[in-house]
Design goal:
seven-stranded antiparallel beta sheet; Pnp Oxidase, Chain A; alpha+beta; 316 residues; 39% strand
Length: 316
C-alpha cells in the first residue's frame, strides 16, 4: 500500500541532504522527493524498459568497489511482470568487473536510457531471483530524469548480443594512454555510487573533453541539474565511484573505480565555465574491454555535436 505523499518518508539520505542544504534546496527537494520517487514502477517506466536494447547497471564488488557496466539484448530482454519487479534476461560477461557485484540478494542500480529519444528512467533495488541466465530486481526506488545533457545517437547491432567478441585486457592499477585518450574524447559517461545498502547509477554528458584528465586523476564539473544529488550525495557519504566510458563506434568499454571527492567551495570551480561544484576520481583500478559490446551508435544528424553548435556542460 502506497502512503499519501504528505506522510511518505523522505527518500533522501544524509549525503543527499547535505548537498541539498548546501545548494539551498532542501525544503523544496523534501516535497519533490516524496512525490516523484516511488517504490514501484509506473506503467510508463515498465513499457520504457521493455523497448530498450541495453540498460546500464551499477553494483559493488566484494572489495567494496562500485562498478558500472552495460547489459544488452534485443528489445524485450528487460521486462516488468508487475510494478514491483524488473526482470532482465542478460548477464555480464565473465571478464566484466560488474559481475562480481551481482547475485541473489545483492543491491543494484539500473538506468534505462534511450539515446536516440534522450529519455531516461532510474530504478534501484535488490536482486530477488537469480538463475545465472536472468535475474529479477525488486524495486526500492523508481523515478524519471529529464533529457538534459543526453547526446542523441541512433543505435544498431553489429552482431548478435549473445555472441562473445573479445576478452578484457588485464586489470591495471591506473590509466594508460589509450584510456586517457578515450576519456578526453568522450561526451558521455556513466557513474555508479552507493551509500549504505543502496546502489545508484547515473548518466553524465558534456562537450568532448569535459572530463579533465591529469595522470590518474579525473576532474568533472557539475552543473545545474535536478537537484536530487543522488550521485554526489552518495560520494559525500561514501567517497568511491565507478565510471564507465564507451567508444560508441567500436563497442569498446572502459571501466574504472577509485576514490572520489566532492569539491563544493574552491577557486578551481571557476576554471570550468558554468560549474557549480566539482568532483574528482583518483583512479585505482581499470579494466579495458575492446569490442565488448554488440551495440554501436552513430550521431543523430541533428545532434548538437554533429552540428558542432551550442555549449555542452555536464549534468549535475
Amino acid at each position: 500500500m502506497n502512503l499519501p505523499e504528505h506522510t511518505a518518508p523522505s527518500p533522501w539520505h544524509a549525503g543527499e541532504l547535505h548537498l541539498q542544504e548546501h545548494a539551498g534546496v532542501a525544503a523544496r527537494m523534501d516535497m519533490v522527493g516524496r512525490k516523484v520517487i516511488r517504490d514501484y514502477m509506473p506503467d510508463q517506466h515498465r513499457e520504457f524498459f521493455a523497448q530498450l536494447p541495453f540498460v546500464v547497471a551499477g553494483a559493488v564488488d566484494p572489495q567494496g568497489d562500485p562498478w558500472a557496466g552495460i547489459l544488452e539484448g534485443q528489445p524485450g530482454f528487460a521486462v516488468s511482470p508487475d510494478p514491483h519487479t524488473l526482470r532482465i534476461a542478460a548477464m555480464p560477461d565473465e571478464d566484466d568487473p560488474l559481475r562480481a557485484g551481482l547475485g541473489l540478494g545483492q543491491p543494484v542500480g539500473l538506468l534505462g536510457i534511450e539515446l536516440h529519444t534522450r529519455r531516461r528512467n532510474r530504478m534501484n533495488g535488490r536482486i530477488a531471483a537469480w538463475d545465472g541466465k536472468r535475474f529479477d530486481v525488486a524495486v526500492a526506488q523508481s523515478f524519471g530524469n529529464c533529457p538534459q545533457y543526453i547526446q542523441s545517437r541512433d543505435f544498431f547491432f553489429s552482431r548478435s548480443p549473445s555472441m562473445r567478441f573479445a576478452a578484457a585486457l588485464p586489470e591495471r592499477a591506473g590509466l594508460d594512454d589509450a584510456a586517457r585518450a578515450l576519456i578526453s574524447a568522450s561526451d558521455t559517461f556513466f557513474v555508479a555510487s552507493y551509500a549504505g545498502h543502496a546502489v545508484d547509477v547515473s548518466h553524465r554528458g558534456g562537450k568532448p573533453g569535459f572530463v579533465r584528465v591529469d595522470g590518474d586523476v579525473l576532474t568533472i564539473p557539475d552543473f545545474s541539474g535536478n537537484r536530487f544529488f543522488n550521485t554526489l550525495g552518495n560520494l559525500a557519504a561514501n567517497p568511491v565511484a565507478g565510471l564507465l566510458f564507451i567508444d560508441f563506434e567500436r563497442g569498446d568499454l572502459l571501466q574504472l573505480t577509485g576514490r572520489a571527492e566532492v569539491i563544493l567551495d574552491s577557486p578551481e570551480i571557476a576554471v570550468f565555465e558554468g560549474a557549480e561544484r566539482l568532483w574528482r576520481v583518483h583512479v585505482r583500478r581499470v579494466v579495458r574491454r575492446p569490442g565488448a559490446l554488440a551495440l554501436r551508435w552513430r550521431f543523430d544528424a541533428w545532434s548538437p555535436t554533429a552540428l558542432a553548435t551550442g555549449r555542452w556542460p555536464a549534468a549535475a
